[in-house]
Amino acid sequence: MKYDVVVIGSGFGGLACAQLLSKAGRSVLVLEAHWQPGGCMQSYQRKGHTFDTGLHYVGGLDEGEALHDIFGQLGLLGLPWHRMDVEGTDQITIDGHTWCLAQGFDRFVEILAADFPHQRAALRKYVDMLQGPDPDPSVNAWQWLSETFSDKLLIDVLSGSCLKTELRRETLPLLAFVHSQKSYIQSSWRLKGDSGLVVRSLVDDIKRMGGDVICRSEVKELVEQNGRIVAALCDNGERYEGDLFISDIHPAQTFGLVKDSKVLKKIFRTRMMMLENTYGMYTFSLVLKPQTLPYFNHNKFVYEGGSVWDEATSKVMLSCRVPEDGSNDATLLDLLTPCDSDPMALAETVVPGLRDMVSEQYVSTPHTWQRFTHTPGGSAYGIRKDCRQPLFTMLSPRTPLSNLLLTGQNVMLHGLEGVAMTARQTCDIVLNINNE
Q: How far apart are CA 387 and CA 371, in angstroms?
């Protein structure tokens, strides 16, 4: 069978494209190397507990906010979303002192201005910038923050929830920083359940509309003829033909699948291979003993020994799963850190005695991510966006091959919002491609 669209990889970006294009009447096939779909959105089970891999909270689901429209199109607004603490969705602890990042731009300013009254005007300028047009991708985030705020501690507080991006003074574009912050200040939500709810919803929609999602089908080659991709060859010996192909995997890996090309130049392939990737994350998934820790409806970000922006600074994020049994007791708690050391001691500065509350612990490393998602080096946020060369690091969904498109966090912006935006742009190109 020949499909209108073949999607390579079933991360959120790939599934979002497949769902939107199926809804638009295209025949769609999704090919996934792993035994289950989802990429960084997949969940896994151990001893009766279901753990998340990449999804811990989302921002901007209310009407008029960043993700509302696209999540509505994807049929995801009806999932059991649970609103997080409005007065302090993210609690930032730096060397023993804690500040709250609130929902709502005005409330966000008021709460921080109480501790930083001399920075009130700068805070207002900051939230006005967040609500304005997207900044030029060549603007450096650290430089903009340093020029706006005279208090370096406040810069650290504002950046403290950015374990959902990679903070690098030299390279991070203000654009990427904005999209890691804005939607969470609008409103922040957790799922009452595991991230597989998102994956299953999208897969069920795709299948209901006639599409196919095939797992254990790793693409080994994309066959080019006359400057176009005509088929995907998989490790199971199957050949899948399509009019158009969308890759949700890393661009360097994507172009490596085109073995014999008259279109892809050597210099282009070399440039894709040389793109730097962000660091990986370690996740400590904890099962807690009954009635040992009350559920907390916010995230805790803890830093010690240096600036939030310094790679050597000890850092950890604590994220609770919403109780599903109706109680107020936490059962599952994730500790996330880019550091290759046990984060328990740092976590215990905000949850005293945590070590003794744990009954089971499961650890994933960048190597785990690399094995299950084929992400180079287990990168958590994909290609490192660089404000010094934005045209080379913030890629277009289009490629030199006219019917091969890209999607996912490696293209424009990472994170759920960035991937959703990219998926919609990729689909717009597909739906308009016959009119060009």
A: 30
